[in-house]
């Protein structure tokens, strides 16, 4: 069984460097996917209020029999909770839906700048962190301008910013900001679009290592310092996606994959979209 190593976040929590995405898994299928993932060695599970599957994720965790303290659970809250009190309510509601004693990492799902309340939401997260309600706090889909505002207003840096990132969208400016501030980059949709897995550069490197294209892409994320959260409902692909800690890409291979970047065109603009 493979267990991913961890990285230490700014506020001290230990984040597994690869996790399971859970959107759009729900109900019994969702619970089973989380249970099998934990059985094959996953220790990071990503969910959100918006996925309406926190109950299923919690059930999968309990069904797995893996001790709670060995698992890192991340969830996210929607725009209606963007206030100090709202963040507290959102944390408690997620915790109750998960049926767990605590959440490890709580994220603001989208900045929603039209509402202009993400700073208050982050102030709420800082209070939850200080009170020991959560182990780590962060954001998702924040741009450097949004992150800078949080840091200026609160003096606190998010542990994590979870963004859409893959070899076709390497998000260089955002990643550089993260690196400069010690923010860990989590990569959502790390294997998408599906055409990525038949890209000839990826296929060539996969053949050279006798690995699958998905394993090559996930290994690229890890060697770039990103934390990918691939979703799979199939135990076989869950295992495949986790089996990426026993080989290494060369610097040239990493550079060739990074060279597939097509810029930000395919990335949803978080100044205009959010929930
Ligand atoms: P992924 O990059 O994880 O791709 C998932 C798709 O790839 C599924 O169709 C899956 O199918 C397939 N797949 C998985 N492993 C393999 C493999 N080894 N070979 C071939 N196909 C494979 O995309 P997601 O959009 O699901 O993103 C991952 C997670 O990120 C989400 O589940 C969610 O937790 C999070 N997310 C966060 C967002 C945010 O705003 N913060 C937005 C969107 C997602 P199958 O299940 O059949 O294996």
Plain-language structure description:
The chain has helices spanning 27-40, 54-64, 84-98, 118-130, 144-154, 172-181, 200-209, 213-223, 235-242, 251-258; strands at 6-8, 14-16, 20-21, 44-46, 72-77, 103-108, 134-140, 160-164, 184-188, 227-228. It is an alpha/beta fold. It is globular and about 55 Å long. The protein has 10 helices and 10 strands. The strands form 2 sheets. Strands 3-4-5-6-7-8-9-10 form an 8-stranded parallel beta sheet. A two-stranded antiparallel sheet has the order 1-2. It has a single domain (6-193, 227-247), classed as NADP-dependent oxidoreductase domain (TIM Barrel). Helix 3 crosses helix 4 and helix 7 packs across helix 8 (213-223). Helix 2 (54-64) links the parallel strand 4 (44-46) and strand 5 (72-77). The longest helix has 15 residues, at 84-98. The relative contact order is 0.14. Bound molecules: NADPH dihydro-nicotinamide-adenine-dinucleotide phosphate. NADPH dihydro-nicotinamide-adenine-dinucleotide phosphate binds next to helix 9.
């Amino acid at each position: 069984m493979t267990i991913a190593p961890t990285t230490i976040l700014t506020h001290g929590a230990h984040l597994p460097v690869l996790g399971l995405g859970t959107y759009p898994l729900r109900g019994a299928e969702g619970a089973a996917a989380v249970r099998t993932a934990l059985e094959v060695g996953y220790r990071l599970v990503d969910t959100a209020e918006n996925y309406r599957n926190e109950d299923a994720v919690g059930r999968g965790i309990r069904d797995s029999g893996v001790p709670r303290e060995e698992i890192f659970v991340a969830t996210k809250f929607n725009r209606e909770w963007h206030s100090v009190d709202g963040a507290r309510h959102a944390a408690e509601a997620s915790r109750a839906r998960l049926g767990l004693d605590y959440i490890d990492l709580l994220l603001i799902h989208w900045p929603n700048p039209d509402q202009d309340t993400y700073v208050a939401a982050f102030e709420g997260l800082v209070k939850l962190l200080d009170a020991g309600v959560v182990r780590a706090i962060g954001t998702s889909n924040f741009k450097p301008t949004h992150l800078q505002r949080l840091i200026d207003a609160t003096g606190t840096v998010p542990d994590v910013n979870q963004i859409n990132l893959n070899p076709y969208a390497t998000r260089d400016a955002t990643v550089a900001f993260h690196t400069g501030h010690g923010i860990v980059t989590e990569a959502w949709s790390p294997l998408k679009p599906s055409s990525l897995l038949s890209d000839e550069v990826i296929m060539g490197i996969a053949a050279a290592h006798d690995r699958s294209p998905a394993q090559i892409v996930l290994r690229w994320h890890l060697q770039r310092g990103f934390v990918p959260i691939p979703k799979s409902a199939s135990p076989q692909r869950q295992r495949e996606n986790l089996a990426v800690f026993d080989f290494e890409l060369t610097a040239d291979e990493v550079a060739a994959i990074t060279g597939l970047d097509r810029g930000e065109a395919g990335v949803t603009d978080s100044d205009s979209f959010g929930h």
